[in-house]
Amino acid sequence: MTTRLFGQRVPRSEDARLVTGRGRFLDDLGHDALEAAFVRSPHAHARILDIDVTGALDVDGLVAVYTYDDLLADEEEHGTRVAEPLPLLIPHPTLTHGRTPYALARDEVNHVGEAVVMVVAANRYAAEDAVERIRVDYELLPVVVGVEAARAATHLVHEDVPGNVAAHMVQQTGDADAAIDAAPHTLELDLAIERSASTPLEGKGVLARWDGDDESLTVHTSTQTSTSVRQAVAAKLGLPVDRVEVITPDVGGGFGVKIVHPWPEEILVPWAARRLAKPVKWTEDRREHFVSSAHERGQLHHVRVGYDDDGRLLGLSVRFWHDHGAYIPYGLIVPIITSTQLLGPYKTGPYRVEFHSLYTNTVIVTPYRGAGRPQGCFVMERTIDAIAADLGLDRALVRERNFIQPEEMPYDQGLVFQDGRPLIYDSGDFPASLDVLKKLVGWDDFEAYRERARAEGRRVGIGLACYVEGTGVGPYEGGHVRVETDGTVVVSTGLTTQGQGHQTMLAQIVADELGVPFERVRVTTGDTRRFKYAVGTFASRTAVMSGSAVALTARTVRAKALRVAAQALEAAVEDLEIVDGHVQVKGSPTAQIDLGAVAVLSNPLRYAFDEAASRATQFATPADPDRPPVEAGESPGLEASDFYSPTRSTFANGMHAVVVETDPDTADIRVLRYCVVHDCGTLVNPMIVEGQIHGGVAQGVGGALYERMEYAADGQLLNASFMDFLMPYASEVPEIEIDHLVTPSPLNPLGVKGAGEAGVIPGSAAIAAAIEDAEGFPIHRMPISPSELFHLRTSRPRKDRP
Questions:
Q1: Nearby residues of 257 by Cβ (< 8 Å), 6 or more positions away
Q2: CA distances from 322 to 97, 261, 332, 696 (A)
Q3: CB-based contacts of 19: which residues, under 8 Å, 6+ apart?
Q4: Measured in whole angstroms, how far is the alpha carbon of residue 634 from the centre of its chain?
Q5: In this structure, are 549 and 656 located in the same domain?
Q6: How many domains in the chain?
Q7: Any keyword Oxidoreductase (predicted)?
Q8: What is the 3-state secondary structure (H, E, C) of 415-458?
């Protein structure tokens, strides 16, 4: 091989298939299956009085109608657990009032879109016709929408949850209040980020087939965590885990919303398939996704900070309220991440953070790309900018004075992170990143540009934001690598992929570790038939976790290949190398053996199934009377499995700078430049990393300027369609200028850190800073629309208007 593949801009091997329409997504499967549809609550909070299905019974093609009573009857008759509430996936000691939904609503609905009745029919058209004819009588109950209403607790979402508080958590290092009170300068801020959602191109979907003879279940689902869905389905349906297989086909985007396991439909569709002994399928439509999947981002923060004359932080206290919706199946991960990642690259002095996680009569909240970090970054960066404004200092200078220095790594922030382990930054050079960013965006020359723009009647501003991102959370991931007799290398990992280029990245790692051409490596993800144990794709963890796992596995396979080849070539192991898929003697490439032939020799056979296999039978070569055909502790074949489990998370970091223009008349906001400096450690494939940054920045722009979930006071989502929910088009996303800084992580064998979420984290903070710089007054709430900016202008005293 002329060059290592690791670190190269290798074109994605997945793309030819996907862009030519040969992808296989959930709805491309199961054309022979019955199809399901759901009656969903039209009310945000109501008691179910009666369900009348008689109007649906004469629909041609109707197969079955199920309510909660059917789930309860099945539980009593067959010992399933489908009538129980869905699991609370991540318990926490401070989560004292965790509540999760039933697969079908039992007595009460708590948000618009909650499933009440399941219909199965010959096709989706018939199922929807039946849904329209089912009548549900409700008694309306008081509705709680938004953090302020939840915090006031005039009404309760769940009668047995006082104050609508599911959890109250405090972490602190030192006495922040005393430090702030003693500081030469203090300020207080109230900041807010509104609700948004990931809205992937493909919604959720499930296809299930029951094999009555084998008493086994095969489930295809558009998920980010196939092995966890397998465990959940087996537990709920009362099946042995080895009787359930879960396969993830191509997935049209996840962004966090598909990490929940199980969704109600992931239980109900397999349950119905088993009950009916026929394949059953459900594909989520777009409105269903808006009102019955998951949202994120909604938080209110109150900040107190103390600092000296130079802008150095002396103490920081943050109190915030997190809206987690009607239920909390994914636990406190989002607010825990916000509370810890808020610190960013800074030394804050004593720090105290307190949050309340609150119930509202709205769609549940689970991690969405960034997962609590955009909120924390917004709060910290707005606070730094406020300090700079108060002291009349350059905003970049205040950041420089508060940075953790590279020689202080590893740096212990003294908190507990989302993985339950200490929040210790493993690596990074924040001053160097800022220097690169300032040069990239022209920070020091911006005032001259502003003056030129002002002379043209234009209003421009510049902002920057810094972040640190915990990536590669445990507990583990694994990989399996097998060399076939034709020299093909088959790699399997339990992680799923949603378009990130995992197959290419993992193939690069394995190709380098084994010394084989990239084209020889085939990668399978998210299929429990191939790999049983995994955690999932989230938290920017694939390169760190699965990358490390397949690297370790490939090294084991390589070591065995050299041992087997050493016998065949009658050479010492240390004298061998693998080049272009051949094991050869160093310095004597003519003495070589193809890796596929080594795979044949590694599996002693009694029978010759083909010409290659004949080389491994008992009379093919002289036997060593002192050695068994298979060494103790080894298995036949040239293959291995291994796992990687980190001591703690790795921490990537980066900084974004934005230049915006705000129209003096219409208050329209246009992003002129967007610059990124990114440090995710060693880059496996820079092109894939940059693609992840591009996608993240687009979502960051959307979260800052366009995307929000607009709820009415009665809990109706007013913009539950792409006609009303605004997203940035290509015309709204600027060209993204990227530079990389590489500080390898010492925590894993590849030196990598995660990259998948980084692009979205500082978007709102950087854009808010740029708008504030252009307009001359504070921006404390995001997203911001032109009409809101116009209102902020006009609501200020005339002498203060720009």
A1: 197, 198, 200, 204, 293, 294, 366, 368
A2: 15, 22, 10, 23
A3: none
A4: 37
A5: no
A6: 3
A7: yes
A8: EECCCCCEEEECCCCHHHHHHHHHHHHCHHHHHHHHHHHHHCCC
pLDDT score recorded for residue 620 = 73
Whether residue 638 sits in one domain with residue 674: no
Segment 660-691, tens digit of pLDDT: 999 999 999 999 999 999 999 999 999 999 99
Helices 264-276/68-78 angle, 10° precision: 60
pLDDT number for residue 755: 92
Model pTM?
0.95
Element (DSSP H or E) covering residue 19: helix 15-19
Residues 122 and 244 in one domain: yes
223's tokens: 């998920």
Sign, Cα dihedral of 19, 25, 31, 37: negative
pLDDT for 8 equals 93
What CATH number is given to the structural domain containing 354?
3.30.365.10
Domain that holds residue 579: 475-644
**Do both 345 and 483 map to the same domain?**
no
DSSP state of 544: I
Q: What is the pLDDT of residue 624?
A: 73
Alpha-carbon span 675 to 287, nearest angstrom: 35
What is the pLDDT, as a whole number, of residue 797? 61
CA angle 614, 581, 561 (to 5 degrees): 60
Written as six digits, the tokens of 288 are 């269903």
Q: Which regions of the chain are under pLDDT 70?
A: 1-3, 606-607, 623, 632-633, 797-802
Provide the edge-to-edge strand list for the sheet that holds 185-193: 165-173, 351-358, 313-323, 299-307, 185-193, 781-782
Q: Determine the Cα–Cα distance for residues 361 and 342; give it in Å rounded to an integer.
A: 27
Q: Is the domain of 279 the same as that of 321?
A: no
Residue with tokens 């349950």: 271
Positive or negative CA dihedral for 87, 492, 742, 769? negative
* Helices and strands: H and E segment counts in the chain: 19, 29
| Residue 38 shares a structural domain with residue 104 | yes
Say yes or no: 630 and 653 in one domain.
Answer: no
Asked if 637 contacts 482 with a C-beta cutoff of 8 angstroms, the reply is yes
Question: Residue 629's pLDDT is what?
Answer: 74
Calpha distance 638→512 (Å, rounded): 17
CA dist list (Å): 715 to 110, 149, 325, 363, 718: 10, 12, 11, 9, 9
Angstrom distance (rounded) from CA 98 to CA 498: 30
The pLDDT of residue 2 is 42
